[in-house]
Amino acid sequence: MSEKTNDEPPKAIYTDTLTKRYKGNPFIEALPPLPERKIDFSVLISELPPAPTPGDRKASEMVRLIELATLNEVVYPFAGYADAALAVSTMLREAYRARNPMTPSDVKRRHAQAVSTSETGIYIPSEWESSGQSHLIVANSGIGKSTFADKFLRGYQQVIQHETYQGKPLRHAQLVYLKLRVPNDGSLKGLCYQFFYEIDRQLGTNYLKQGRSAGTIATMTLLMQKVVTATSLGLIVIDEFQNLRSAAGRQAEHVKNLIGELIEWTGVSVLLISTPAIDKVIEGNLGNARKMTTTGQTFIGSMQRGSETWRQFCETLWDYTYVQKKGKLSEAILDAWFDASAGNTAFAKLAFSLAQRNEIGGRECVDASSFEFVANNDLLFLKPAIRALLSNKASALVDFNDLFISRKYKELRALVGIVDEPVKAFKNTAEFDEVQRPKPKKVKKVNEAGGKKAAMAEEIELPEEDPLMIED
Question: What global pTM score does this model have?
């Protein structure tokens, strides 16, 4: 069993959403209130730590070299990500609209799923319809996709403990979100194991052990659907979705089918994050493409030379100057900075960090020549990637994203204080053999098995009764 990350989840505090659509739904009212204006989402996704003062720039060389890592914490509020934050905020709440635990239809649905087996399939009351949604964010590596997701999710408690709602008992731990990454080899089983591992890590449950016993896609799918229901999971974020292009056989198709079924049969919402290489993943299946973009998609490109966005971004970073002589951000510097980064967020931060690192203890100023030196020395190995970005040709960008998993690039990031989050690896993840599996079906009545235990195939069991303990 995995250790829980927190001893006790915070207790729910309910706030009226002021909308008729969400009124009386404890799962939604326990979430943070939404901002009143769309523009406020820009503030929510930004991160601007305290910038150095003139006094800070007089500190010793080692102190300033250490403080330079503060630059990595800056999150600039690009307009595209503010739009994505609005979409994700909405679809997280919509995921719970049809899963109000105080309604008879949801109680019936939970019981129906609890008694479903891999042999009978998932049974859902005909009057229940999923309100889960999906959104796709596409951007080249280094533009800040994962940073956006992490910043957005930090605005929510991952687990919320409910006790009572409007005078009625509601003893339940609500899992608000889960973030996953598609493994580099596109493994379906590896992604599923990661799903159970992360839930066990948050709730102290033992689902991963049960998941390892699932020998078929049908059994694994059923278990995941049951767990989503049992934990009242609202949002699944799946990063590096383009890695499905490396999946063996039809496994990529199975992953896409699994996502569609989770949305349709459990009501969870799904946010997919990918590079443009996702085209290879979704081509040839229009139905799956629609399922993955029910609320549309957000495409974030590199900044353009001379654009207002590039200037404002650089002005924001320029405030984090740690050399002793902070000069004016000139056009020459902006051009040299762009040449060293091609308008890529990660490259721009890295170039500025390396430029300052080189100048601290030396000339103690950053100018155009500082960026030129970085481009021709520290970042020389990035030249092919820079040229690919500047050309803006799809053919030139084919191998671009592989750069971000290279040892050289990771070493440079570590040098300026950027620590990449390790990806959990699992052993014995040989893929499923079958390529066909039964599709879920709806029936008008809940399985009459009622209180009888409905054992899953291969001895996988979950509590059959509704995990929400609601009393009249």
Answer: 0.82
